[in-house]
Specification:
The structure is a homotrimer of 409-residue chains. The relative contact order of chain A is 0.15. Chain A has one domain: Orthogonal Bundle (Ammonium transporter fold), CATH 1.10.3430. Chain A is mostly helical and 409 residues long. The first copy, chain A, is globular. Helix content of chain A is 71%, strand content 0%. The interface between B and C is large, with 64 and 64 residues. Chains A, B, C: Its main location: membrane. Chains A, B, C: InterPro entries: Ammonium/urea_transptr, NH4_transpt_AmtB-like_dom.
């Protein structure tokens, strides 16, 4: 019986980890479809290599910072013999699950800095973000490190800062860190040379859509498996995710006037925003939360990339940064009993926690990417950008056969 | 212990819902690959928006018609405190699972009416189908609404009408509703102007195949998780699905002479047909059922689109309508103990139920799409069709960068 | 309680089977992206049809050879009433799971013989491999058929030959069988006519990457669900798979100089190598094992296809054959307690078993493909190769609309 329970928890977290791992494929293809043809290969390699670097950094350093656990004991001990390690490798599959969250940080940033970032500094930044910067916020919110949850939130603001699946810890942190990286890096060569041009046309809507689908599918693991045990699973989380996604799609459709990029990112906007409160909000509250997120994404993507000239290629700052921030706040609104939620949250805690998390992301992003810029030089030269990241960094284009045949490379 | 059982059921239904949700991505990419290039974006947006509309319509109306449950109580009540709601949000994840079934109806229709349907009327039809028409058949068959299962089937025809995972309730209903829509809408501009031309060439076999793979993968959730609890799970359903898929592939390969479109749809034909009886048939019966379905699809796709001039772009009427109908009947043949099945079914019940379900689908489709046609005007003008649904409705093509560079748009 | 346990095992194996089934989509798209445009359709049809043929061959013959079980009893008996069949169809879902492994053999070979193999002989070889050749090694290693595990390994070499998830049974066997097929078939027309040309450029890096992602995602089911019951699940297997994948990616990135093909295959190389010992190695050992596998793949792919003129299109011999062989050995190194592993393995057993398995694969491949060559003629004529497999075998190209419009076909 006990073994069945333990085994079921391992199985449960495993499926969660696999689903969130699949989201990384989604990050890759969303970027492939959104960037121009000559940066597609770079998008693919970045996401896969970032995932590998994140795994190593989080294994050796990050997980220890967040949860105080290291893995340098024998395999027998790891699978349950030693103190601090759950039976049947439960702690290991928990690591796998949380590692896929950690690796989302560079995957989020990747879409913002696309087409003009050099490869090695970007890899170094990944290691710094996942090894150090992210575990600090992760441990603070989810493991009560530094006692901030008790001293600041619980005592002074009336409740723990609630972020069930990471609207702030993962998305706002990642999105604001991306803003820092984008500000440091500057826009792509020629991006704002011609006033009135609204943007660079994406290379492929089908690939963009495939990325969105993979993200949406995996997101149900991201949210529901954040319960971390079968005993704690709640169907409410699944339903709220569904409703927020639907709200995001419909709002983006209307505000974005049938644009496929907005519709497919609108689904993600809703899902970003529902993470924090998916275990305490009412489904109708989630629908509204998602719809507002879809609206935020479309409006601020246009403002940021056109009015404010922030060259955020995939719109990761509005998507993850702003919709994540909104999600942290929404949890303090629709999570209250007054609005049909389960309660146990306060708007004050959510307000302070969300702003702190976002600000920390921006600062972390500025520091990390400034550092790698100073050490390695972060930006591809104009000539390299003209050739494109694929040929410059990877010596191959996305469709080599065609390009060889037509003499393009 | 009880909590583990409840949690396991929530987990089980969640995975089913995620898998069937992934099938909607499959619907999207199957259509992307089968339509022409200038309708790819529309295919993608349609499926994602239909899913969102379906979610909202089924949440507020459809689920109440089928199962008498509404969600307008507090979140605490929804997760198990109130009457009619299972513990740990079990009822909510059941909603999610069944919502992905309901949303399959417009996704099925979508492939039949591709390339020439206007967007708003199609969205309105989705709401009507998922909010009203589908819940009526769903509740009648799966929730014994109106007592038809007792009064007609059990008493008069010897057994309940058996449709384990929806050959009739989902696929035949959807496929015959699609036929109604197609008949109302008429063929694409110029489709039958040149006698002897067998059809419009699909844009991309890889995308078509990707759609088929996503559908096949998710289908195992569609079928096995229809048990709706871990205690009721049966490996027989998985094996029968596997065998029917194999039968469909091989028959379509042979009858369709190695054609990739037929092979990849043949897998789906087998899976459509096995839904109804997957819990009662023998694996060899399922292999035969799937093979016959593969044959039916190839033959009737050619008959319908070439001989009878029904412009069913993806062949959804033969695939879902006819193979679904065949699946309802096959359950009454191979489900009997005489042919190695588990029994508890009668051919009379299956025959009457399958015909009634299909006829209801056709009538529902005709009514709904006639209604939206009268209100909004269902059909794109010839000029709009010439420009293509992508530019007309979405102001963008599937590969904007290339089209801008080559001056195509 | 007992029913929950049984149902959970069925659920667990089902998810494993679905994940490995998804890997077959991965095989298809990896080949689509790596071959030239005029062989893409053939890649897709081959994998799907091979899967169907494998299912039928394994159902009627292969599973009986491996495990002595046939399915020609009534459906009631199959679901648990009869001797040898687990409750709730457990044995059937076990068949589904193991069938997806068996079907990996022709899927592995497929990538090696791409672009010049005729279709019917290749299908016949699939039936022979999955119906006869593979079940012999599968049953010997995993079901102690012929008593070889006792008489040779346990008694003489100190421990059973350990191959948890099939580095040898599946990957080395398949990879070496592919080498046999490639040697029999010969290189593609013109492949080595121009000295100094390093290879044929792949058609599409995004499709290649999609294949890799689907394989990586499904691989966690391939490895973890090899435990075959919830009670036996181990989070160590998941973590070791993760670490080996990361090691493979990073090594291939460095050795392969940022090449996207190498990076995406490097992930697979690590996963191939970790299969055997994923339940006994330490995560750090798995990282090293994966990194060495990534190195092996890049080096031997170049040696084999350029220096040794073995026209292995996808590099399946280095990937599955050599990295699989290395995985069998690595289990005997990093699985020992001395290197942090759980123990219970000996290098002698792993050495002998790995070599025997690989040699058996090569011999089986040579025999099977020689046989079908003699009976049917295995190789497409030069003229057929010039037209390409798609038009020759399937009468259609990968992008029919574009090819019709531009007059290419």
């Amino acid at each position: 019986m006990e073994q069945l329970q333990q085994g079921s928890d391992v199985f449960f977290l495993l499926m969660g980890a696999i689903l969130v791992f699949a989201m990384h494929g989604g990050f890759a293809f969303l970027e492939v479809g959104t960037v121009r043809h000559f940066s597609q290969v770079n998008a693919l390699v970045k996401i896969m290599v970032d995932f590998a670097i994140s795994t190593v950094a989080y294994f050796f350093i990050g997980f220890w910072i967040s949860y105080g656990i290291t893995f340098l004991v024998s395999a027998s001990a790891l699978t349950g013999g030693a103190e601090g390690f759950g039976p049947q490798g439960l702690t290991l599959v928990k690591f796998f699950f949380l590692c896929t969250f950690a690796a989302a940080i560079p995957a989020i940033v990747s879409g913002g800095i696309a087409e003009r970032a050099r490869f090695v500094p970007q890899c170094a930044a990944t290691a710094l973000l996942v090894g150090f910067a992210y575990p600090l916020i992760e441990g603070t919110v989810w493991n009560n490190n530094f006692g901030l949850q008790d001293t600041l939130f619980e005592s002074m603001l009336g409740a723990n800062f609630h972020d069930f699946a990471g609207s702030i810890v993962v998305h706002a942190f990642g999105g604001w860190a991306a803003l820092g990286a984008i500000l440091r890096l500057g826009p792509r060569r020629g991006r704002y040379d011609h006033p009135g041009v609204s943007g660079t046309p994406p290379s492929s809507i089908p690939w963009l859509a495939m990325g969105s689908w993979m993200l949406c599918i995996g997101w149900f693991g991201f949210n529901v498996m954040s319960a971390q045990s079968v005993a704690a699973i709640s169907g409410l989380v699944a339903m709220n995710s569904l409703m927020a996604m639907a709200g995001g799609i419909l709002a983006a459709l209307i505000v974005g006037r049938n644009d496929p990029g907005f519709v497919h990112n609108g689904a993600l906007a809703g899902l970003v925003a529902v993470c924090a409160g998916s275990d305490v909000m009412h489904p109708v509250g989630s629908l509204v939360t998602g719809a507002i997120a879809g609206f935020i994404f479309v409006q601020f993507f246009q403002l940021a990339t056109q009015r404010w000239k922030i060259d955020d290629v995939l719109g990761v700052w509005p998507l993850h940064g702003l919709c994540g921030l909104w999600g942290g706040l929404a949890c303090g609104i629709f999570g209250t009993e007054a609005l049909g939620g389960i309660g146990g949250v306060t708007f004050a805690s959510q307000f302070v926690g969300s702003l702190l998390g976002s600000a920390y992301g921006l600062v972390a992003g500025l520091i990390v990417y400034t550092l790698v810029d100073l050490i390695f030089g972060f930006r591809m030269s104009d000539e390299e950008q003209r050739r494109g990241a694929d040929l410059t960094i990877h010596n191959i284009s996305a469709n080599p056969e065609l390009d060889v045949r037509t003499g393009r490379i």
